[in-house]
Design a protein that fits this description.
Elements lengths: L1 H4 L9 E4 L6 E3 L5 E3 L1 H12 L21 E5 L5 E9 L1 H21 L2 H21 L1 E2 L4 E2 L2 E3 L6 E3 L11 H4 L5 H12 L32 H13 L3 H14 L10 E4 L6 E5 L2 H15 L14
Antiparallel strand pairs: 1-5, 2-3, 4-5, 5-8, 6-7, 8-9, 10-11
Amino acid sequence: WWYQNRDVDKNGIAEYGAMVDQANWKTNENNDQVFDPDAVIEAAAWESGMDNAPRFDKNGMGEDDPGVQVFENKDSSGQVIGYSINQESVDLNAYLYAEKGFLKSMAELLGKTEDVRRWEREAKFVRDYINTYMFDEQTGYYYDLQISLGGSGRRLLVNRGKGPEGWIPLWAKLAPKEKAERVIANMLDTEKFNTFVPLGTVSRDSESFAPDKYWRGPVWLDQAMYGIEALQNYGYQKEARELAYKIFDHAQGLLGDEPIRENYHPLNGKGLHTTNFSWSASSLYSLYRNVMTGEETTSQTALDLE
């Protein structure tokens, strides 16, 4: 589905985007229906789950960044079947890599040897692409890749700052050790992600950091869980446990009887936004079970680390 509906240049690497829907159109001053790219950009950000993250800011950041643009995805007959934004997102493709690992495990159990080889082959392509094009040597981190129609230009979106998307390749277990260690150095830096409540949605040293504004700084526990499991995957069990304890010790109410919140302020631990939030609860349960009292992860196990 992703490669049919969200791969505008058909290179085997997907983008976030939107479906064909009336919501992508608006009425102008002449009462005509006109296409609304802003609606697609909003839908793409929602599709990622990171609604207002800086990497989806429509106007981009800096003079050399043209911002977020919208491309059409068409089927073989030329019919528009969806839309993509002009960036290949590193988390999306790392998730797809992990899914190939899960599918390989299923194929092995079912004795489907051709499928095993298929998932290995496809996974290798995604792994090599991410490590070749989505890692920045200067900052030691993974970022989304800005693309253009026809493949004439690619630009790593370092300028939009670091977010949890950059540690998803480690959760998926596709990062080579030397790259993983540089990402982990960013994660454990107290001036970046290792805050009072660690592993927030924007690095503390980013100009976009806003510790109480949804996906621009607060700690979302699912992404924090992926980050802590990323540490485990590369042998940082002690550090993983330390970060898990910081979450339980510092996030408001977790050691008492207050409701579990949608997200938490990274600098003071205050609970933010919705109360009684179920995916926060499930992430906390997984952290307790898999990190604080065990050494398991939710990562795929069929594809080996490089």
